Amino acid sequence: MYRLLRNFLFLFSPEWVHYFSMNSLRLLCRLGVRKILRSMFVPKENVPSEVLGLRFPNKVGLGAGFDKNARYLRELECLGFGAVEIGTVTPLPQAGNDKPRLFRLPKDKALINRMGFNNEGVEVVRERLKKWKIEREN
Q1: How far is CA 121 from the centre of its chain?
Q2: Per-run averaged pLDDT (10 residues), the chain, 138 residues
Q3: Which residues constitute the domain of residue 69?
Q4: With contact defined as beta carbons under 8 Å apart, do 50 and 83 qualify?
Q5: The total number of structural domains that make up the chain
Q6: What CATH number is attached to the domain comprising 40?
Q7: I want to staple 96 with a disulfide (CB 3.0 to 4.6 A). Which of 11, 63, 88, 116 is the partner?
C-alpha cells in the first residue's frame, strides 16, 4: 500500500503533495479521526520534558519550515509532536523563490528545499497562533 501511494504522490510536485497531504489530514481530523490519530502517534516514551524553562509534552519535535504559516498546528498535534517550530516569518507577506523550488532526490530519500522565505506575514501568523492558543485552552 505504501509503495502504491508513494508512486502516486511522486507523480506530482513535492510542494503540491505537501499541501495535499496536510489538507487531507485536516479533513480527516474534521471528520472525527483526531482521537484515533492521537492514540496511534503518541511516542512510546511519552515523557514530558523541560528545556530552558519551557515544558513540552514529549521530546519529539518538528523542525522549522514544515508549517511556516501555522496553518496545521492542530493536525500536527495529532501526529504526536511535542513541539512544532513554524519557521521564518517576515514582517510582510512574501512569495519566496520561483517554482519549482522543492526537489526530490529519490535515491537519497531526501528533498532539496529552495523555498525562500515564502510566508503570509507576521500579522496573519500571529492571529492564527492566538486563535490556536485560545482553542487549546478551551
Answers
A1: 17
A2: 93 96 95 90 85 92 92 93 92 97 95 94 97 91
A3: 2-137
A4: no
A5: 1
A6: 3.20.20.70
A7: 116
